[in-house]
Structure formats: C-alpha cells, structure tokens
Amino acid sequence: xxxxxxxxxxxxxxLNAEQAEKLFATVDETGHTNEETARKERRHREQAxxxxxxxxxxxxxxxxxxxxxTITRTAIGFVIVxxxxxxxxxxxxxxxxxxxxxxxxxxVSVSTVASALEGGVEWGNGFTQFPEDxxxxxxxxxxxxxxxxxxxTTSTNELEVFSGSxxxxxxxxxxxxxxxxxxxxxxxxxxxxxxxxxxxxxxxxGFLKPTGETKTLxxxxxxxxxxxxxxxxxxTITGIDADMQKKLHxxxxxxxxxxxxxxxxxxxxxxxxSSSDDDLIVDRTDTSSSDEADSSATSASSASSDSAxxxxxxx
Length: 315
Known about the structure:
Elements: H1 2-9, H2 17-23, H3 35-48, H4 67-100, H5 110-119, E1 121-123, E2 126-128, E3 133-140, E4 145-152, H6 158-177, E5 184-193, E6 199-200, E7 213-227, E8 230-238, H7 242-252, H8 258-266, H9 269-314
Parallel strand pairs: 4-5
Antiparallel strand pairs: 1-2, 3-4, 5-6, 5-7, 7-8
C-alpha cells in the first residue's frame, strides 16, 4: 500500500534535486539569468547559509540596499551643480556686459550712444535698461549735444511712463555729462496712443507692437554749467500740460490710496475735496488781501511821512 502511494506521488519525467540544481545554476536571487552572479551567490550560500547579506535588525537599511543614500547624494550633487552653473553664468554675463558697455564719459558718438541705449548704462548698483525702440538724433562732442528719442511700449499709463523715463533720462544724462565735451542731453519720450486716448503697449511678450499713433509725451533736457564753485546739473521737463498733470494726479491719487479709502468709508470724500478747494481759494484770497493791506499800509505810512515833511518845511 505504501509503495503504491509513493509511486502515485512521483510524477513522470520529474526532475530530481541534482537536475533542478543544474537547471537553476544560472539564476540569481532576483530570478534573472546571470551565471556569474548566481555562482557568487551559491558560493556565499555555501559559506554563510544565504546568498545575500541581509540584516533584518538593522535600522539604517534592513533590506541591505543603499538606494536611498544614492538618491540623496545624487540630488545634492545635482543642486550644487545647478547653483554653480547659475552663479558662473551671472558672473560671466555681468563681466561681458560691463566690458561691452560704452563709456560715454570718455567717448560720445552716434555709435557709442546707440550702444549705450541698446545694452544699458551703469547706474546705482546695476544697469539701467532703455526701450527697444530708440533713435539717436544727434551725438557729437563738437556741438556738445546728445539728443535721442525713445518709444515706450511697456508702460500702461502716464505715471509709469514718467517714473521710468525719468530714471532712464537721468542715467543717460549723468553718464554723458561727465564727459567734458558734452553740455546738453535731450531725451524725448514717445508713446503709442489709441483712438480712445489711452496709451497702447506691446503684447505677446513684446512680439506684437502697438499700432496707434506715435506721440511725444514728454522731453527731459539736462544741461551742465561750469561755475566757480563747481559743476551744476539742471533738468527741465517739457510737454507736461494741464491735461497731463491731471492724468498724473489721477494716477497717483487712485481709489486705492489710504486717504481715498478712508474718505469713502466715512462718506466725506466730496466734502473734503470741496473744503480743500475752498481752503486753497481762501488762502490765495487771504494772501492777496494781506498783500493789499500791506501795500495800503505802506502807502499810508509814506503819505503820512510826506505830509509830515511838508508841514515841517512849511514851518
């Protein structure tokens, strides 16, 4: 009976232990065919009782793998390399830019002024950029003049144009007026104005230029005068008419300023505006009346002195 059971358990053409060992001799611990790795693991299994060193009690790496350490080191190395590339790129770009920037204090010509407008000039702790659209009207040390025209296509209102152009004109003028052969720098600022009277700007990252009518919004005139006490710089801004002043005023005192918000909350914006205007008129009236009173008092005192003089002469 036992012989029948043993005969039933044994399958036909089944592999014995030696045949199975020979069949799997080229398979490693991961189940892949690698004869060299399988040979090393069998040798290690014969010596240590297992093919791979695994310490299940290890808190650092119980599986015996160092994948986490490798990933961490790779990530840190990648970040360090990126930082080095960025720093080196910034330093090299700054050095190249300073080397290629025209020095207007030493040489003024159409090419040097165009180079300064294209690449920027040093101002403060960095560079001041100018609009992409510019024209050098005049740049000559013999006439002691520099005149350029730029077209602002990035500012959305008059206040942005004024603030940005003032910095640009100052940077260009001061760099040029340090040249002993330059006494005047004229900086015209143009904008594109639409049919509704608003300033047009470029779109699609600057690829689509505005198509409105070109208008000269303001002009900065910088002059230099040599005196006995030193050199004097003078700036004159032209083109700011009453309409322009109103637009600048509206841009500065917008509805988001604290005074306007408080006035709207308290409901006293109209009264405050009217009172301020009235106060301004009253001040002007008082000033004029006081002047008239002073003049009348002066005339009265002079008349009394004249009459006193005539009386003394009569006596």
